[in-house]
Amino acid sequence: MVDIEERRTKRKGTTFLLVVAAIAFLLAAFTRLLGIDGTRHMVATTALTPYFTAAGVLLGAVALLARRWAVGTVTLLVAAVLVAAVAPRAFPDPRPVAVGREVTVMSLNLLVGTAEAEAVVAAVRERRVDVLALQELSPAMVRDLDRAGLAEVLPYRHFLDEPGGSGSGIASRYPVSPRALAAPSTLRQAGALVDLPGEDLELVSVHPLPPVVDEGPEHWQRDLAGLPKRVLGGPVRVLAGDFNATLDHVGLRRLLTSGYVDAADQVGAGLDPTWPSGALWPPPVTIDHVLVDDRCPVEGFTVLDVPGTDHRAIVTRFVLPAR
After folding, report:
1. In terms of Cα–Cα distance, which of 8, 7, 26, 9 is closest to 71?
2. pLDDT of 34-66, one tens digit each?
3. Which of 43, 71, 236, 267 maximizes the CB count within 10 A of its CB?
4. How many whole angstroms from its chain centre is CA 126?
């Protein structure tokens, strides 16, 4: 009799734990699926979508093995929907045969100007970067980059450097003209027209305010909404930088529906984390992106570690279509 009671107690305890875990998973899942950015805590939860998707699959399987059929079935069904949204990022998309001029763009958040300038310039040289987008660009960092030889490789620039983390800039192998492409934002987001031989390219160094600040995500939402859409028939446009958003955030997904593709997603690297570099906590997420005009086939994407910053550099190659 005692054994039966003990088994019933254990069964109830197992059921309770599985139900609580399932509720937590479902709340996170529906926050993502319904596109609710909400509070800063909800935004942070959405950034972890790949993690709780995997947790949902595991939880559903455990519940079924424990014969908690309702819990297991509901959890696995919702997890399957998330898998369908997340898993394709790990596989390359079909792309047209590239005909035109190949361009290499690199982006890096410099962590308030503490990144190792020599490593940045070495990466630019090694990857034969044509255009470099920088975030958190300070006056001291500009001096360090120049001492490291950046101007020798990328002699043209439009820098909006400031002390702290609000500065940004664009350096280029080809002449640049400043352009006010993004709406006024909390942090500075440099925009420029790059005069490539035979073709023009508009680029924004993207850096919306992080959504997890105490004030909440309103500034982040506004900054994302102020990024320029692709203009049909206009110059090829690229948004490169620290979006403080993953492909699961509704603000970034809206941009992608306006005529851009995520370069990493196109080549199957969409789950490669970019922040924090070299750390396991908080869980690494993919918040740095290069959004490329969907007229441009993406040829490659690489994530690089750079000493001195908590972000990883991202480098993409794409082809400007021949006209």
Report:
1. 26
2. 988 889 999 999 999 999 999 999 999 999 998
3. 43
4. 23
